[in-house]
Amino acid sequence: MPTLPNVEPRGMQHCETTTLGVLLRHEGLDLSEPLLFGLGSGLSFVYWDARNMGFPFLGGRVKPFALTRNLAATLGLELQVQETSSPRRAWQHVVALVEAGRPVGLQLDSYHLDYFTSKVHFGGHVVALYGYDERDAHLVDTAQQGGAVSTSLAGLARARAARGPMTARHRSFVLTSPGGLPAWERRIVPAITACAGSFLNPPIANLGHRGIDKAGRLVRTWLQRTDDPGRDLPQAALLMEKGGTGGALFRNLYRDFLAACTDLLDSGHLRTGHRLYAEAAGLWPEVAALIAQAGTSGDADCLERAGTLLGELSRLEREAMQALSRLGSED
C-alpha cells in the first residue's frame, strides 16, 4: 500500500496551515506558518451563537477552507477540489492522487479521528493524507495532535462522511503551481489589504471589529447563558488559546506575519498595523483568562473586565486594519 516517502510531516499550530504547508512543500514552496496564514488573509473574528448551540463560540479566523481558497488565489496556484456524497468515489479519488505521488488535503470532523483525545465535533478540521495501508490512513495534523499520525480507515470514513456545522461532502483537495513557484513577496500587499477590507466592512454585526465589540457586550451575560459555567466558560477560553489558534485567537500568527512583512516592505502603515496587532495579541490571553476565571469562580466582575478589554480590542484592531488598508498608498 502506498505511503509517499518525500512528505515532511511537519505539524504546525493550526490545522489548515499545517495541511497547506504539506501540499506546498510538495510543490517546492516552503513558507512559514505566519506567512501561510497572512497570505491566505486568514484573520477575522466571529461571535457565533446559533439556536442549536449550547454555548457561544468566539472565532478568530475566516471560515474553514476560505483560507485555502484565498491563498491559492493570492499566489496564483491551481486548487483542485473534489466533493461527493459517495464514500466509495471519495476514497477512490484520494487513492488515485496518492498513487500518483500527491499528498491530499481532507476536510472532516475531528471527532471520529482515533488520535483525538478531545472528543468534540468540529467539521472544519483539515488534515493532509500522505499514505495508507490495509487498516490505517497516515496523516499530517497539528503539532499539538502529534504531527505524523495514523487513524483507522473506518474512523477516517466516518470523519469524512459526518454532517453538521462546517462539514463538507467528503471534500479533498490538492494544490499545484502550474506557472512555477510564485513570487509570494509581490503578493503581500493584496493579501493584507483584502483581509483589512473584510475586517473593516463585515456584512453582519457578528463579524470583524463589529463582532469583537458585540462580544464585549454579550460576554458580560455568559454566567446567565449556561447551566454549567464551570464547564462552558473554561472550555470557551481553552479554545481561544489552545484550539489550534496559535494563541491569542490567531493574533500571534498575524502579528508574526506582519513582522515578517516589515523586513520586506518599508511602510509606515505596515509598522503601525504590526505595532497595534502586537498590542492586541497581548490582550487576548487576558480576555481568555478572565472568562475561564469567571467560570470557575462565578465572579461576574471577571466578565465585566473581559467585556471592557474586548471593547478596547475592537478599537485597537479597527485602527490596525485601517492603517493596513492604506498599505501601498505611500510613494
Automatic annotation (TrEMBL):
Pfam families: BtrH_N, DUF4872. InterPro entries: BtrH_N, DUF4872. Transmembrane segments: none annotated. It comes from the Bacteria. Residues 155-324 form the DUF4872 domain. Residues 14-142 form the Butirosin biosynthesis protein H N-terminal domain. This is DUF4872 domain-containing protein.
